[in-house]
Every structure is written in structure tokens, then in C-alpha cells.
Amino acid sequence: QKEVEQNSGPLSVPEGAIASLNCTYSDRGSQSFFWYRQYSGKSPELIMFIYSNGDKEDGRFTAQLNKASQYVSLLIRDSQPSDSATYLCAAQGDSSYKLIFGSGTRLLVRP
Amino acid sequence: DAGVTQSPTHLIKTRGQQVTLRCSPKSGHDTVSWYQQALGQGPQFIFQYYEEEERQRGNFPDRFSGHQFPNYSSELNVNALLLGDSALYLCASSFGQISGNTIYFGEGSWLTVV
User: Fold this and answer.
1) Fewer CB atoms inside 10 A, N or C side of chain A?
2) Which of A49, A97, A103 faces B102 most closely, judged by CB atoms?
């Protein structure tokens, strides 16, 4: 069973801090990795995706990928209360285009 | 530029009934995938349509079927509804059968089976 694992949380950080969200995956054939933010009662919103080892930055967000360790992370700098949501990590294979999601990590940013 | 649009937003059905959900992909996208998200879980892949054909299917029974139209819009049909089919149904659109392209979700259709 190909899986994506995330700590369910909640991860609680103070406003202005760096939030670090982690994700591991079991299928070494996974090539691309996506981070989505989902507010309660809403649909997932794409934050960013990464497919090369290393870091990828977009504004306050940085995705990190380590294929050797089968590990993906998302850093949120200067966390705001509006960042409080569930963050979903998803893996996509090279020939299988479906996304395999983790169960999500709930982030709570305290004012 | 319209994003991914889904309808209806909410619906309530009775066990044994049938339901049809609709999706229009983002402008420029030609691939539509459907996902089911139960409360507290990540979305689960149902199937994907490209060039009007089902290209991939997840672990869902044949009660779940779909269709893609020439304008790339898509329908998800679920027959013989069960209480366990109550979930958020998400449509995702992307361009081509290429790994690593952006994938956007619609607002979803909330289905309650009573």
C-alpha cells in the first residue's frame, strides 16, 4: 500500500514564528509532491509543488524535498493566525498521475 | 479566468438513490480527476478522465462511474447510494497526462446520504 504519512497535530506556534510541517512517503517512484491548505469546510487550495531535491521558495512558504530519505516538508515563515488550517501533503508518481494524500496536519497559529 | 467549478454545492440523498455531480475544469485544462474526502481524512482518488476516457481508477466500486465531455467538463455518477458515501466530492483539473503539472481543486460538492 503506497502511503503518505503526516502527523495529525495540532501543531501550535505563536504568531510570527516558523511553522514546520513534515510528510513522509513510502513509494520511491513518487516524483512530484504537492502541499495544499484546507480551511474547515472548504476545499484544498494549492500552496506549491516540488519535484527536485532541495528547496523551493514562494513568498513565506518553502518546500523541501529529500528523495533519498523520502521526506517532504513545508516551512511557513512569519506565521499568521490566518494560516491556521489543515495542511495536506500529496505525492504523485511519474506514470501514475493520481495524487496520494496524507491525512493532513492541523496548524494553529496563536495571536 | 474561471477556476474549477462544481455543482451542486450541497445535496442530500436517500440510501439507494443515484446522484450526479458536475465539474468544469479551469480554463486551459483538459484533465479531470475526482476525489472523495471523508471527514478528517485526506482526499481519496476515484478516477481520472483525459480525452473523454477513464485513464486511471482508484479502489472504488463500479457504483462510481464518470464521463468526460468534448468541452472537458465531467460528471461523477454514484448509484445505489450508501450511508458511507457521505463525503465531500472534489474535482481536480490539470493539463495533460504529465506528472508535476499544477493541479487545482474546485469548491467541492457536499453529499449527505440519509
Assistant:
1) N
2) A49
**Residue B84 backbone phi and psi in degrees, to 5:** -70, -10
- How does pLDDT run across A13-30, given as a tens digit for each residue? 999 999 999 999 999 989
Q: Mean pLDDT across the stretch B79-107?
A: 92
A36–B105 CB contact, under 8 Å: yes
Structure confidence at residue B64 (pLDDT): 98
Write out chain B residues lying below 8 Å of A35, CB-based: none
pLDDT value of position B1: 60
CA distances in angstroms from A75 to A52, A56, A87, A104, B17, listed in the order given = 16, 10, 11, 15, 45
For the beta carbon of residue B45, count every other beta carbon within 10 angstroms.
22
Name the pLDDT band for B101 (thresholds 50, 70, 90).
confident
CB contacts of B97 in chain A (<8 Å) are 97
Q: Suggest the residue from A3, A8, A36, A98 to mutate for an interface test with chain B (most B CBs closer than 10 A).
A: A98
Least confident residue range of A21-25, A82-86, A90-94: A90-94
Beta bridge partners of A58: A61
Alpha carbon of B16: minimum distance to chain A alpha carbons (Å): 26
Q: Is B44:B25 a contact under the CB 8 Å cutoff?
A: no
Phi and psi at residue B87, to the nearest 5°: -175, 175
